[in-house]
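Worked example 2:
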Amino acid sequence: MGKKIMTINCGSSSVKYSLWSMPERERLCRGIVERVGIGKSFVTYKSKGKQVKQQCECRTYEEAFDLIFKMITDSSFGVIKHLSEINAVGHRVVHGGEKFRHATLINREVIRIVEELCDLAPLHNPANLLGIKVAMKKLPTIPHVAVFDTSFLSTLPPKAYMYALPYQWYEKYRVRRYGFHGLSHQYVSQRAAAILHRKLSELKIVTLHIGNGVSITAINKGKAFDHSMGFTPLEGAIMGTRCGDVDPGAILYIMKKENLSPDHMNEILNKKSGILGITGKYVDRRDLLEAAERGDEKAKLAVEMECHRLKKYIGAYAAIMGGIDVLVFTAGVGENSPEYREKICEGLEFLGIRINKEKNRSVRCKEADISCQDSKVRILVIPTDEEYIIAEETFNIISTAARSHKSFKKKESREDSA
């Protein structure tokens, strides 16, 4: 029987939403409420043939959810008549730690554990929790499911996720590499296998999620085998405002020289480093590339540094997997910047990576194979869709729960008859 699944991704001042018809995998509508609690709020709504944008103040998340429900049930452009048509809600939760390796039905215990994990994701988990609590209050009679960004990366082996730090820090504080953007890497790896008409279990894939945040995942036989981000999203590639890999000794040195507190240094590493730190003014890669074309030396350096770092990760992941079958570009820059894709692939011909420059230049925000015909590695551009993964995981969870309940009832009936 078909189900209507709502997905919610609650941020610090925004609520992204979508509504799906499953198992048909049809997105009925999507949108976002932005600037919640900070003034000049607005909501966007998109469905087939309909686009709506409205200014309306949302002082609280309760008001944001009311606005979303009003949109999806609107008599002129909504996709359902009443909220009772929604069968379940799937919530994106950034950090599941080591507790949650799969999506799970939300209950009081799950909420308690996610609250405990807020120390590991202080910028995300509290907002995710707030969305869960408000949605469960508004829609109390249907299942709510937590879908964790870290779950797909929970298959990393210890040799990939452990740090060479005192082992008791792992035992006491669970200091290890967790990784992020898992829903995105999960989606594009599944799509890559579908596009190539291959089994995911037989492919070696490197997925590059390049947006303001950047992460790379080695996916071997359908499972995450290594990943660039770590205990926090700071580790790994150079990003818009995050530093990526850096010698911890340099951080300690600057903290002493500049008399910086841990909180101040954390602010610098997360919000004032990366592309912004190098150039002093750019974060958006479009602005960065334009400045580099004009001869801005710092912009040129930032582009070269970022692409150099990404090439290193591709080479490293080829080494640990014993080769690559597929290279996938996704997220804002990966989907929309032919310049970045070409620069990253340059010089990787020895790995069998040969990009078709003409095809590449024509591809923006659509699925495409941009490989040369003789490329041993298929190079794909795949727009990511985290909402789809949330909807699919939620549908699978409630379907499994329904089957288990049905099976229990049958067993109970047989025992009663006996």
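The CA atoms of residues 255 and 265 lie 7 Å apart. The two ends are 31 Å apart (CA to CA).
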